[in-house]
Amino acid sequence: MEIDVYKTWEPIVGLPDNFYFYGLNNVGGDLIILLKEPQSERILEIKFSGILGYRVVQEAGRLKTLYENKSLVGFETSTDSEFLRWFKEESRNMFDDWDLTHYVICNLDNIIDIISGPPVTVEWKVA
Question: Which of 32, 45, 54, 102 could be disulfide-bonded to 78 (CB atoms 3.0-4.6 Å)?
Answer without folding.
Answer: 102
